[in-house]
Amino acid sequence: MMTTTTHNLASLGEFGFIARLRQKLRDQAGRTDVVLGIGDDCSACTLPAGELLLTSTDLLIENIHFRRDWTSLYALGRKSAAVNLSDIAAMGGTPRYLHLGLGLPQDLALDELDAFCDGFLDECRAAGALLCGGDTCRSQTGMFISVSVQGTVPADQLVRRSGGQPGDRLYVSGTLGDSALALHLLRQGQAPPPTLARRHHQPTPRLALGRAVAVAGLAHAMIDLSDGLLADLGHILQQSQLAACLDPAALPLSADVRRHLNHQPEDLDVVLRGGEDYELLFSAPPEAAPRLEQLAVRLALPLTAIGSLQPGEGLWLCRPDGSRQPVEARGFNHFQSGQPA
Amino acid sequence: MMTTTTHNLASLGEFGFIARLRQKLRDQAGRTDVVLGIGDDCSACTLPAGELLLTSTDLLIENIHFRRDWTSLYALGRKSAAVNLSDIAAMGGTPRYLHLGLGLPQDLALDELDAFCDGFLDECRAAGALLCGGDTCRSQTGMFISVSVQGTVPADQLVRRSGGQPGDRLYVSGTLGDSALALHLLRQGQAPPPTLARRHHQPTPRLALGRAVAVAGLAHAMIDLSDGLLADLGHILQQSQLAACLDPAALPLSADVRRHLNHQPEDLDVVLRGGEDYELLFSAPPEAAPRLEQLAVRLALPLTAIGSLQPGEGLWLCRPDGSRQPVEARGFNHFQSGQPA
């Protein structure tokens, strides 16, 4: 679907862009759940009877959330959908429909816009979700991306942040810190290893895991890791009104992160506080352990116990020798950091 | 809910802002249709059984869609919700839930942010709709507002753009061109009359009209006027595969617009092509006329027949003397205009 011409948006126009996008969506034509897609005042869609409507919205702003010289537009398109789909995963839901708002610089090349849309739609397709509408306008100051995702979940399968129980084990999927370390290296002017770069630029929403955990009722509380492990665990603690112990030695780390920490152990903070893992963090009762082990095998996705929920307040790093060190449940704060991207 | 201190966002922080917003939403606590509002990965809401989910999303970008020196932040908050609610009206739906994405300059004063939120929530309340979630981040380049609205409509009451029939009369609600003329004057450095300024800065979504027309089955096709009368009528013509005649003498104009056109008749184009009326344009069979007259009285909202749909293609200004002048179904194009706001 790429074009080799160098047209830009000014020559295409708003309605030309919408027509072009509709062409890319021809494979949605068979979906009877969408009564009206792009092209009316609203989309009109059906939902499974009796299920709750889940909705999340995320902004991605150029030079705040991404830099165009660090990412391909295709990866950015995938990521824009993925970070939203991850929120549906965190509730145990099934993703259904996406709406895309785009503020576009007038000089954006048409093949870059095509690459963005192709990435966005590929990520939607991989999740079985459909782009049903949106809004586009020009921007005088870089790309603005606003994505809204809708999913559904049977009411008795909804997994909240607030459901944690004392004695629950804390699990995370995948590995932690890959994305944050990639960003850390990019900011220092270094090229991150390709596996880390991919984890940063093109994260994978853990939809199958979230859904499986919800269907089987294995998790009491769940969240996706977008703001960093400590901050996102902090949300569970605050809403479940509990404390937690984390074993830093138990954190699942990729070979690349492990190698880096061997040389620069002080960067453990990047792993603990850096965001954008888009893994799931959930609390589960100890008796769920065997079924979670089976689930990890079935999904070919590591699930690692990294600590536990406890009565009280606070967050501690607890080492096997019995020592406890309090840590602040804090990650990246959008209004307090002065550092772009 | 205003504060007189001069705190800004950097001192409040992202989660401080979210906590503040939740305080403003305490009156939603009794709504049992919202299972989870702000504060989890997704909102979780119920919908009336068997109804279609309607969704629309709109972007408002500073210096493209608005200028902070021309509007109060309270009015901007109301407008941000209103322009989205208007899309629900255009489908004949009932608005339910909104999600708000905000990119905020770090120096935005907290009382300005409060005013924006108060306006947004007042508009939601007036529509019986609830703010259920969103995303906030800092912006290096002015305010960036992304709103997503959800509503519902029984499937047999959905009013599309594509349903127009030859012989239908074309109706518009309210008056046309007030908003566009206000903007035209602002751009020329003049202060618009207060009634026009209010129509531009704080438009009224025609929710009761859209719903009444849908319930009674009075309209074949409907759209809200955001891009300008000619452009939006063009969408109905394109999707209904029909032509239209408009009688320019029949256009409903406010006293302020009429007075302006007396002196500057060349500005009729501002009325025909200028956007942001947020009135409803719909096509209805001639036999619906008596019921539409009753509806106009009941809602205290003028409904004016301004032309008709005809077989074929094209858009004409048709005068009572029988003369026909072709016009282009074109309004404001976001990527081709070089003029901000």
UniProtKB/TrEMBL annotation, chains A, B:
GO molecular function terms listed in the Swiss-Prot or TrEMBL record = ATP binding; magnesium ion binding; thiamine-phosphate kinase activity
Q: What else is known?
A: Reaction mechanism of ThiL seems to utilize a direct, inline transfer of the gamma-phosphate of ATP to TMP rather than a phosphorylated enzyme intermediate.
Sequence positions that bind ATP: G134, D135, R161, S226
| Family, as annotated | Belongs to the thiamine-monophosphate kinase family.
- Record-listed E.C. numbers: 2.7.4.16
Q: Where do the PurM-like C-terminal domain residues begin and end?
A: 165-313
Q: Which InterPro entries match?
A: PurM-like_C_dom, PurM-like_C_sf, PurM-like_N, PurM-like_N_sf, ThiL-like
- The yes or no answer to whether the keyword Membrane is present is no
Annotated binding of Mg(2+) 4, by residue? D41, S56, D87
Annotated residues for binding of Mg(2+) 2: D58, D87
Residues that, per the record, bind Mg(2+) 1: T57, D58, D135
The record's PANTHER family line, in alphabetical order, gives: THIAMINE-MONOPHOSPHATE KINASE
**What's an example GO BP annotation here?**
thiamine biosynthetic process
Catalyses which reaction? thiamine phosphate + ATP = thiamine diphosphate + ADP
Q: Say which species the protein is native to.
A: Desulfuromonas thiophila
Which residues take part in binding substrate? H65, E276, F332
PurM-like N-terminal domain: from which residue to which, for each copy?
39-153
List of residues binding Mg(2+) 5:
D227
Sorted alphabetically, the keyword list is: ATP-binding, Kinase, Magnesium, Metal-binding, Nucleotide-binding, Thiamine biosynthesis, Transferase
Give a yes or no for keyword Magnesium in this entry. yes
Functional description taken from the UniProt entry: Catalyzes the ATP-dependent phosphorylation of thiamine-monophosphate (TMP) to form thiamine-pyrophosphate (TPP), the active form of vitamin B1.
Q: What is the name of this protein?
A: Thiamine-monophosphate kinase
